[in-house]
């Protein structure tokens, strides 16, 4: 069955997941995985579904029935076998945790270092929270990256340590 990657966004309210799940089920589809969250009053996320090939076009068209509730875009996804073959190139993963005073540019700087080392971000979660003692906002990030065989992780760690000093943040690599 073809896999589709759906991007969804709408004003946060109850019943949004049920409405999308109804459309998936009505077309013989299977909800495989998702990452969904409330962000700034919006409900947003990514959902991977598989739909019978003979119903995929009808399914994509029927997503418009959610207008007013959710804006949904469908994109072709990779087949599971292709993902498994591609995953063979990455032999390890690193976890990077960052915490420091919030200011513009942190994500750009960290992603620049990762890109320089040809590392692909598997997952990234970021957020801000009140600084309990000093006031202001703290920025925190949790990043998991795929590390291809032969990567120089000691050089990566050195670059991240240098970046932490420049940005005045704490970065832990595990």
TrEMBL record:
InterPro entries: ACT-like_dom_sf, ACT_dom, GcvR, UPF0237/GcvR_regulator. Residues 95-174 form the ACT domain. CDD domains: ACT_GcvR_2. PROSITE patterns: ACT. Gene3D superfamilies: 3.30.70.260. SUPFAM superfamilies: ACT-like (SSF55021). Pfam families: ACT, ACT_6. GO terms for biological process: regulation of DNA-templated transcription. PANTHER family: UPF0237 PROTEIN MJ1558 (PTHR34875). This is Glycine cleavage system regulatory protein. The lineage of its organism: Bacteria, Bacillati, Actinomycetota, Actinomycetes, Micrococcales.
């Amino acid at each position: 069955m073809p896999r589709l990657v759906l991007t969804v966004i709408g004003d946060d309210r109850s019943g949004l997941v049920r409405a999308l799940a109804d459309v998936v089920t009505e077309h013989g589809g299977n909800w495989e995985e998702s990452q969904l969250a409330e962000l700034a009053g919006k409900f947003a996320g990514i959902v991977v579904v598989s739909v019978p090939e003979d119903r995929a076009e009808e399914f994509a068209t029927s997503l418009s029935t959610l207008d007013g509730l959710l804006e949904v875009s469908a994109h072709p996804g990779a087949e599971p076998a292709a993902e498994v073959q591609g995953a063979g190139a990455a032999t390890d993963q690193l976890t990077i945790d960052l915490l420091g005073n919030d200011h513009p540019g942190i994500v750009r700087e960290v992603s620049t270092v990762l890109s320089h080392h040809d590392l692909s971000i598997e997952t990234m979660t970021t957020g801000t929270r009140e600084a309990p003692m000093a006031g202001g906002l703290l920025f925190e990030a949790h990043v998991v990256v795929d590390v291809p065989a032969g990567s120089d992780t000691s050089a990566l760690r050195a670059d991240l340590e240098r970046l932490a000093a420049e940005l005045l943040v704490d970065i832990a690599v595990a």
